[in-house]
């Protein structure tokens, strides 16, 4: 029996290189080693975007297209949409009943979400009842499939603590060992900053999307921050102080390329504009096969729909089994 993994991404629309390096690449690897359930979290998107739903469906589709293009294989992993598995909502109700309010209030996940909301809507933004329940819904996502491992970055380990607490509380209250405590599965993926040196994010307009064309990628690359102390192209540069471009080189270039860039930069033999132009080409080469595959799925939306519907049905089969056991354990009618 393989360990079971559940992980989701909010339906934010087209994904960027930060998602690729920090999450998707890892999922492509994990799908071969674990039984994987990967979902697009459209309910979680609603916790902060309940009043902006015009693109919700397309956003879900775009996430799935990016996953497929990057190599997540629907024949191996179960790909589903959270709202197409309504059993999660029912489990969420049961878990909400037994979760103390202060567990939710202190949860780092909720704090993060509230911070995002304040950034977008201002200091007076209201936290909805649904957003308050975010950590419990996240636990329902995980417990719905009785997952044993959750892929997380080092900064997200605390986010699954509440799920482990809820699992223990459920098992204690109903005198069972039905739910397993999910363990964090740490990933060592590269983190990439945005073109302005801050965290990469769609709303910060500092990202390069997986789906960007070669022209757009090349143009965006030219705006990347370099060594701010360098005034002229033949000034000796300081690659380690090159806030974005050299960091990208270390992620996307090979050892030889990084060595050459460092040496030429330090000797003032390489101008920043040329350096970034070359870097844009390297990134475009790397993403060329992924973008080609992406175009295929964009041109075949029915195929994507089929993958979503079939994956969600497959997830529901498992969810129904677990929910039926949960109802019995609680003693529902
Ligand atoms: Fe950065 Fe390249 Fe400019 Fe050096 S030459 S500062 S590595 S962009």
3D architecture notes:
With about 325 residues, this protein is mainly alpha-helical. The protein has helices spanning about 15-35, 40-50, 55-70, 85-100, 100-105, 110-120, 130, 135-145, 160-175, 215-220, 245-250, 255-265, 270-300, 300-330, and strands at about 5-10, 35-40, 80, 150, 185. Strand 4 (about 150), helix 9 and strand 5 form a beta-alpha-beta unit. Helix 3 packs across helix 13 and helix 10 packs antiparallel against helix 13. Iron/sulfur cluster binds next to helix 11, helix 12 and helix 13.
The overall pLDDT average reads 94
* Distinct ligand kinds: iron/sulfur cluster
Please report the first level of CATH classification, the CATH class of the largest domain.
Alpha Beta
Tell me, what's the shape?
Answer: elongated
Rg (C-alpha, Å): 22 Å
Strand and helix order: EHEHHEHHHHHEHEHHHHH
Structural class: mainly alpha
CATH superfamily descriptor of the largest domain: HUPs
Helix content: 55-70%
* CATH-defined topology of the largest domain: Rossmann fold
Provide the β-strand percentage band.
5-15%
Give the tally of structural domains: 2
Strand order of the largest sheet: 1-2-3
Stretches where pLDDT is under 50 for at least 5 consecutive residues are none
Q: Specify the number of helices.
A: 14
- What is the makeup of the main sheet? 3 strands, parallel
